[in-house]
Design the sequence.
């Protein structure tokens, strides 16, 4: 069996993608930026010490390859013996309100995609390539969240922000655009859009040269669920969704993010399964990944019913307020579930599994 190359194994989604392939007996070549991230990084513990991945490393089923930073990565060695590629890695920093948007995000995202496809072009054994795009590549980012009720976003929808428009927004140093979307989030979403567009350009060029590998772009909504990537203190810094979820356990006065960046969610394990099935099936296409509507007020009201002995520690927010339902926002239509046969987890299961894991990590001092 040929191996699958997976980028971003130390990330929230990438860890689950790798674990899904490993559980299905596939050899995995996982890429790292460096052998041991410096203490200034969010994940200073080497993945070799992870209880999730250490057994697979010891058996040889999981092999790690240091490829360098995303925009300059060298996949030559990691690509040997590989038949499928899943690219989840991407630079994430939604806290910015200014800066060199193109150099810091677009060039890195597109450049990283280019380096990967350069390696794919040199490997005649590649059957399928799966990339993680974003719901942000599909969203209407110029209309206020609460004014999108009744609209539908499909697998064929793209956000219409141009690079020049984001340059202007960054130059203004405004924290949000006129519609209220956070500038840092817009920068990230538009960078994801252009990285995906570049991937489709490379796919079309490869097709013209007679290449037969498939390309699947998966556009996740808000990814929730239990983290399994290597985590060190503080737990709040382990991923965007984990950060927001863990804030809900910070006491009655803790912040409840409302509205969320996306009113649609997908469990990280279901999203990983989508990546797995897309790679195995080898079906070319673009798919939104989302299983249901939610908001964090709904979650904070659910938590005391799941953990009554810890009810006092959870945020209260504004009981009864449901921004995802009133005023509501956009709907989504995707072929993902139907074409790949995915059975999705419900919100209560996602929340319970997530906080079971977070409380376990808390007991470990994380």
Sequence:
């Amino acid at each position: 069996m040929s191996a699958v190359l997976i980028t971003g194994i130390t990330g929230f989604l990438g860890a689950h993608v790798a674990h899904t392939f490993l559980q299905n007996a596939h050899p995995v070549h996982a890429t790292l930026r460096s052998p041991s991230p410096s203490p200034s990084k969010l994940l200073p513990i080497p993945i070799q010490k992870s209880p999730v991945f250490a057994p697979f490393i010891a058996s040889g089923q999981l092999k790690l390859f240091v490829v360098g930073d995303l925009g300059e990565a060298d996949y030559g060695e990691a690509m040997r013996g590989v038949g499928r590629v899943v690219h989840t890695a991407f630079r994430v920093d939604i806290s910015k309100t200014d800066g060199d948007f193109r150099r810091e995000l677009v060039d890195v995202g597109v450049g990283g995609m280019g380096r990967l496809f350069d390696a794919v072009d040199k490997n005649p054994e590649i059957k399928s390539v799966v990339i993680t795009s974003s719901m942000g590549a599909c969203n209407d980012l110029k209309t206020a969240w609460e004014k999108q009720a009744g609209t539908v976003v499909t697998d064929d929808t793209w956000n219409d922000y141009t690079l020049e428009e984001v340059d202007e927004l960054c130059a203004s140093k405004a924290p949000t655009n006129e519609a209220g979307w956070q500038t840092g989030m817009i920068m990230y979403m538009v960078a994801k859009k252009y990285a995906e567009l570049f991937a489709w350009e490379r796919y079309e060029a490869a097709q013209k040269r007679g290449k037969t590998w498939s390309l699947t772009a998966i556009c996740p909504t808000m990814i929730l669920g239990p983290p399994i990537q290597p985590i060190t203190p503080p737990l709040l810094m382990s991923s965007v969704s984990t950060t927001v979820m863990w804030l809900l356990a910070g006491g009655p006065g803790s912040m409840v993010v409302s509205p969320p960046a996306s009113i649609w969610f997908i469990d990280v394990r279901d999203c990983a399964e989508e990546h797995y099935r897309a790679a195995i099936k080898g079906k070319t296409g673009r798919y939104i990944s989302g299983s249901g509507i939610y908001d964090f007020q709904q979650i904070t009201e659910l938590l005391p019913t799941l953990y009554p002995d810890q009810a006092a520690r959870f945020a209260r927010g504004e009981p009864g307020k449901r921004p995802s339902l009133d005023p509501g926002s956009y709907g989504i239509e995707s072929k993902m579930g139907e074409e790949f046969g995915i059975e999705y987890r419900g919100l209560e299961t996602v929340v319970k599994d997530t906080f079971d894991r977070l409380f376990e990590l808390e007991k470990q001092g994380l």
